[in-house]
Amino acid sequence: MPGGSAGRTGIALTDRQRLAWLRLIRSDNVGPATFRDLINHFGSAEAALEALPELSRRGGAARSVRIASHIEAERELEAASRNGAVFIGIGEPDYPPALRQIEGAPPLIAAKGDLSAATRPSVGIVGSRNASISGAKFAAMIARDAGRAGYVITSGLARGIDTAAHRASLDTGTIAVLAGGLDRPYPPENLALLDDITKGCGLAVSEMPFGWEPRARDFPRRNRLIAGISLGVVVVEAAERSGSLITARMAADFGRLVFAVPGSPLDPRCHGTNHLLKEGATITTGVEDVLAALAPLSQLDLFTPPIVEEPGKDAGHDMMPPDDDARGIIVNALGPTPVEVDDIIRHTGLPASTVYLILLELDLAGRLHRHSGGTVSLAY
Length: 380
Prior knowledge:
By secondary structure, the protein is an alpha/beta fold. The protein is built from 14 helices and eleven strands. The chain has helices at about 15-25, 30-40, 45-60, 70-80, 135-150, 160-170, 190-200, 220-230, 245-255, 270-280, 285-300, 325-335, 340-350, 350-365; strands spanning about 85-90, 110-115, 120-125, 150-155, 175, 205, 230-235, 255-260, 280-285, 370, 375-380. Strand 3, helix 5 (about 135-150) and strand 4 (about 150-155) form a beta-alpha-beta unit. Helix 8 crosses helix 9. The model has no long low-confidence stretch (mean pLDDT about 90).
């Protein structure tokens, strides 16, 4: 049974804070990185919400930024309650501890089912929707044996390999990550499976709003959560252009282990997994390969939760707004090529606090793109 420190640690949000967090993350131009910067600067979501109009105006927004209203947030909280779900903040005890550590971790996730599943060490299993019989059987075997060893199995509720992995781990714990809202699961034929997961010892999670129908671009976001929740990801059958390979790449970027099951070179469903092996993924022919590699990780103390909400913090309110000269210097320094924030600070010679605040203004005005690795570029 893997141990580790992935227990219930953190600080619970008050109802008032949770409502403000939901309003902030549902407001225009506020993604996970911007949310974190706003909280760090202003100390609380309520203070950040008050500052949004002025920040976006200073950043050069063409129109007023849309801020999610109290009524909108309350309706979504009510929808969650009707569906038996809750919203969990990134610093709260039931937030998946490994997910906290990734770049761009969602500040809030909606969750339904057995919340204890979120805090246990997890193995991700993904692969082809058009799975072969042997591929589905192998995925089920890995899921079943890893579950018996104490790991929760995380996957995306898709057809094929995902379905096999979820079904095989219903009794030991599984997490289904959805691309749409929790009330808009996809595909429709897995509705019964999702019901079995949430009524048993499993969990369904999503960062998307209730009522959100999943679109093509939402699935890579879902894959990011699968990779972030898991200590390692096992890929069983994946074509050369496959969402499973996106999950594997994200897992590697997050410092997770990537496992790949070798397959016939004649089977297109195995081209992606064989390519992963060429790139250094761990060859996987049985659960022992996975358990042996993950054992050291599941014992490490990696999951200290961040203190995100600091209502008494006196940050940002008394700081003088940057002047137009400083703003112009940073805009002129930026271009379409992503650059590191530290390079902007060195290049401009401006104080770091000024640079970060101007970037926040540009971001809220829709004039900044954020990229992986914390780099930024100017939006044209």
